[in-house]
Amino acid sequence: MMNNSASKKDEYAGYLNGEPNMNDTFGLYHQFNDEKTPKYQTRITELHDFFRLTLSETINVTDLKELECDNEKVAKFRDLMPRMLNNCRELTQRKSYIPFDSEASESDERQKKFQLLHQHQIVLGFQEFCNGMTKLIIEEHVLKFFLKCDCSHDLISKHWTSFYNLFEYVLGALGPIISYVPVNYPMIRKELGFKDLTVFQYYHFKLFECIKSKLGKEFPTLVTASIHHYVRMFPITNIILEKEVPMLRIMSNCNFRVESLSPKDFYMKTLKDYFNKEPTLGLKLETFKNFKVLLTRNALLASLFLPEWVSDANDLFISHLLLNKKSISEYIEIGKDTYDEEKKRYFRTETYFSLLMFRNAFEARNMLKEFKGFCDDAISEKISSAYGLNRDVEKLFDEVVQLANVDHLKIYSDSIEYHLCDLLGSTSKAIEQYVKYFESHLFKLVKKVKTTMAELSRDNKMKYLYDNLPILRLKFVNLPTFPSFFERSIFRKTILQSDQNSAFIKDIIPVYKDCLMELFKERIITNMSQEEELRYRDQYQPYISQFFQPVEMIADLKIKYTSFLSFYENIEAAVNLGKKYNENDHSSFFPLVFDREKIPKVFQQTNGELEKDFILPQGMDSTWNTFLSNYHKDNKAQNSDSSKKDLYPMWNLHHCEVESSYIIPDGGCLLFELTLFQTCVLILFNDNDHLTLQSITERTKLAYKDLILILKSFLNYKILLRDSNNSYRINESFKPDLRKVKNGKLRVVLPRNTSMQTSNMGNGRSSSAHHEGSNSQWTQELLKACITRSVKGERDGLGYDRLFETVKQQIQGFSVGEFKDALAKLLRDKFVTKDESTDTYKY
Q1: Distances (CA, A) of 408 to 220, 355, 457, 525, 530
Q2: Is the per-residue pLDDT at 254 higher than 50?
Q3: Which residue intervals define the domain Cullin family profile in the entry (predicted)?
Q4: Measured between alpha carbons, how far is 685 from 683 in angstroms, rounded to an integer?
Q5: What does the alpha-carbon distance between residue 736 and residue 536 come to, in Å, rounded to a whole number?
Q6: What order of strands is seen across the sheet that includes strand 720-722?
Q7: Residue 405 CB coordination number (10 Å)
Q8: Mean pLDDT computed over 639-655
Q9: What CA–CA distance (Å, rounded) separates 797 from 836?
Q10: Which residues contact 309 (CB under 8 A, 6 or more apart)?
Q11: Per residue, what are the HEC states of 35-51?
Q12: For helices 775-792 and 427-452, what crossing angle results, to 10°?
């Protein structure tokens, strides 16, 4: 708003009392008047009166249409114009003299003489008279307009078009007179002040000079308000804009600058400030959904001022919403937050907008490198923030899953995978952690379905699971080794929780396969439904290769997942056998029988390690022998293939639940989850208060180094105590860490280096350590990840020696043979190819 003080209004009102104040015009009149020539006096007076008549007839006009339709006034101006033009001709061609003093000799008297004025001076004088009269008319109209709008910037902007139309009418009425000299005397045009401007542009310039002189420092504010008047106009159409004459368009035509800026630069500056401050143009979903509409509207507005501004105005709009890291980061965040409470799932932001539009905007400006950098920075910040100093893996994968869900076109999936693997140490560790994360969520979802959705049909239950599973859409899901991580986890959980009453056996196993197939199935891997695939293939053909897997890869993956299904069926068969045996025998023994080739290799042992050379606790031997007898008898009677196979006990994988005397808060006895070998040791203390290491060795026949680790596990949990004489005893005041107790059970974990122990006693007896993994397997996975990462970053590929050195810089402690094996597997699985012509390896 302008200054609305009474003094300011009074200042304007001083010019407008009743009739127009034309006192200043008399000065111009007398300056140009030629008193000695009555004929010229009459002509000057007539022109002077015509200017006054024009002002008096237009100053109080409120509706220009009425003035244009007033035939009497129109006729008056039309009838007077020929005479006024004749006066212009007479006055510019007249002869006029001015006195000057001449000095004679000292004896002669001074004599007054007259000198004939040059026509050039007469013409300039006439034009000065016309300019001055026009300027006074402009000032009167401006002041009247300001008072009418109550000095409000918004009202002035709103009524500007009607004022300007009146101004154009006034200039049109005076046009033949004020343009007489420029038209008829073009040689002195520059001296008249027009230079590169037309006559009407010149008076437009004077109009804005007048407005600026009245407003002072508030003038830029008025221009800004005039721009906002159109920017905020709603609705806006070509029909509406055709009737508008914006202030900035006229200023641009007459090259009038605002704050030392050209009209275009001032518009761009105002538009940029508007984009940054206007809440309706904030970085939110609605803005991106209506992006094309807003961009079209922005172009329409720019064309209202000047069509040549459209390109720059749209560039500014695109730059504000697309060409910066903040917008990319905010858009990704918007996609994460678009959660449908009713359907309990994220909906696809890509339905309305796509990161591909960001990419295209950058690519069109040769800024693709900056786009990739912005995406990578945004992903890095989000992932690092989620992981935090506390190394919160759960929160990390929550973030990663949501980020991948937003990126349906695989724009930044490589960045997600790179930073995820970088934070967790390697691709293998990232997959391993994801498996734990996936299973944790699956268990929670199954529990929720069981407790709160029992009335739903199985199909609806499965649909709920599919919709809410945290499916990770990254490339490493396509690794041939990816299913093997799930195989290990499922196998391990099966042998750890092999109890028909456990939630895993009763609730998880039945739905595990279906849920994993949802994760593994082809359309999830490519992240496209059939309908989307057809749409994207038509619309985004140049980018198809980024997110569609090659046919060969899909075929290989199908083989891998078919193998996984076979593995899973073997798990189900083993669990069903255990359930059946429990039902018939009513014992606490839950046997699991697998085909050896279906057991993950990291859990297998050589035949020599399968022989029982330790002492089973009392009662277990007879239970085991009874089971073996019944198993062979049943299979022989059924004439099954199993009867033709040998049955080997995997002692290192046997687990037991041992009841303790400690009472947990729910009133039951705490159960220890132990390996078979831990059980063999702990059960000795039922009959002995103190036992030495030597006596434990003799009674269990366990390997010495393995026994040390087992005892250490009990000492770590304070289940056993060691006396000063190196004997061991039960801790009578044992209190478990209840945070580690789950479902009334405490798992006593062996020390981390257990899997690395390969103890061999002097008598040749094998180590009885509880193996649950293989270092060699992990080394293979790490090597494959490093090789893939190395060749991925080299467009021209890497030779064998350079590839080996590059991998060696990333990890240590592997042999040449292990490196060659990993490379061979990658070549076999087609993750790496070899160019025979250059002898290089490529991704």
Answers
A1: 46, 9, 31, 11, 14
A2: yes
A3: 429-715
A4: 5
A5: 57
A6: 690-692, 727-730, 720-722
A7: 22
A8: 71
A9: 11
A10: 264, 267, 302, 303
A11: CCCHHHHHHHHHHHHHH
A12: 110
Tokens 């994207």 — which residue?
536
Take residue 196 and report the two structure tokens written for it.
């590169």
Nearest to 247 by CA among 260, 274, 229, 232: 229
Q: Pick the more confident residue, 583 or 641.
A: 583
Q: Is 324 helix (H, G, I), strand (E, B) or coil?
A: coil
Report the C-alpha gap between 321 and 358 in whole angstroms: 9
Nearest by Cα to 450 from 461, 466, 435: 461
Does position 668 have pLDDT exceeding 60, yes or no?
A: yes
DSSP state letter for 106: T
Nearest partner of 703 among 770, 772, 616, 766, judged by Cα = 766
The fold of 775-842 is Arc Repressor Mutant, subunit A (1.10.10)
pLDDT at position 124 is: 84
Same fold, 654-756 and 775-842: no
Pick the CATH number of 654-756 from 3.30.230.130, 3.30.70.100, 3.10.20.310, 3.40.50.1460: 3.30.230.130
For residues 630 and 587, is the Cβ–Cβ distance under 8 A? no
- Pick from 211, 279, 216, 280: nearest CA to 251: 211
Pick from 484, 478, 453, 485: nearest CA to 467 = 453
In the chain, how long is the greatest CA-to-CA distance?
A: 164
Confidence of residue 382 (pLDDT cuts 50, 70, 90): very high
Q: Say which DSSP state 658 is in.
A: E
Residue type at position 2: M
Query: pLDDT (tens digit, 9 = 90+) per residue, 294-339?
Result: 888 889 889 889 999 999 999 998 888 888 888 888 888 877 766 4
* Cβ partners under 8 Å of residue 617, min gap 6: 679, 680, 683
Return the minimum-mean-pLDDT range out of 44-53, 122-131, 406-415.
Answer: 406-415
How many Å apart are CA 29 and CA 129, to the nearest integer? Answer: 7
Residue 638 has pLDDT above 90, yes or no: no
203-212, 623-632, 735-744: least confident range: 623-632
- What is the token pair recorded at 752? 């981390």
Average of per-residue pLDDT across 510-527: 63
Amino acid identity of 591? P
Query: How much is the average pLDDT of 727-748?
Result: 88
- pLDDT value for 815: 75
The single residue listed with the structure tokens 């761009």 is: 268
pLDDT the model gives residue 764: 38
Structure tokens belonging to residue 414: 């490589």
What share of the chain has pLDDT > 70, as a percent?
Answer: 78
User: What is the rounded CA–CA span in Å between residue 393 and residue 424?
Assistant: 9
* Domains of the chain, residue spans: 1-102+110-193, 426-605, 654-756, 775-842
Q: What is the DSSP string of 755-797?
A: GG-----TT-PPP-------HHHHHHHHHHHHHHHHHHT-TT-
pLDDT confidence band for 226 (50 / 70 / 90): very high
Q: With the C-alpha atoms ordered 643, 648, 651, 652, is the resulting torsion angle positive or negative?
A: negative
**263-277 helix and 291-305 helix, angle to the nearest 10 degrees:** 150
Q: Which residue has the higher pLDDT, 790 or 280?
A: 790
Tokens at residue 27, please? Answer: 């000065």
pTM (predicted TM-score): 0.64
Dist CA 799 CA 840 (whole Å): 4
Query: Cα separation of 779 and 756, whole Å?
Result: 13
Between CA 826 and CA 843 the distance in angstroms is: 10
* Tokens of residue 602, six digits: 């990291």
Please identify which residue in the block is written with the tokens 């007839």.
57
Q: What are phi and psi of 99, to 5 degrees?
A: -75, 150
Model pLDDT, residue 236:
76
Compute the mean pLDDT over every residue in the chain, rounded to the nearest whole number: 78
Both tokens of 253, joined, read 């035509």
Burial of 187 (0-12, 13-18, 19+ CB in 10 A): exposed
